Sequence to fold (199 residues):
Amino acid sequence: MPDGLEAEGLAAIRGERLVFSGLSFALPPGGALLLEGPNGSGKSTLLRVLAGLGRAEVGTLRWNGEDALSDRTTHATRVAYLGHQDAVKPGLTVAENLAFWGTPPEIETALARLNLARLAPLPARMLSAGQKRRLALARLALATAPIWLLDEPTLGLDTASVAALGTMLADHRATGGVVLAATHLPLPLPGAETLRLSA
Fold:
């Protein structure tokens, strides 16, 4: 089996509806996959299955040739997941929201990358939607997990922030990390494969 992330014959049911079936892909180290398709086609469901947060009815997910989901606790250490919600605690400052994820120097670097350094002492409840998204991306920048699963990562971002995200994605891939991103908009992921899901 090759290194990287490989899915074979995945199928998922939500409620009583078959969301997708027979879904397969292979991502080598440094690879990227764009998930495209209309609303309700299963992009978010697939990301949750890949993160170990949802269940596939059938199929296999492998990481470096091994069953990725046989030990979900271990798999959780391999995954950084960015969903629709930014998972920002409004009562904590911007910097405090990142305290669990890195050392003070690492946090300073992550905040600078996302142009949030001047906002570090502010309570997160004072942030705009775009600033909260950038804070979620700063948390992603601190992640050491090799698998990045991103659900509409550019939601609410301005052009400069999308460019900063592009740099983060390139750096992650350069170290052998993989990226899977659900999107309706173009993403700065040169050379990415595309998997289109149908409604």
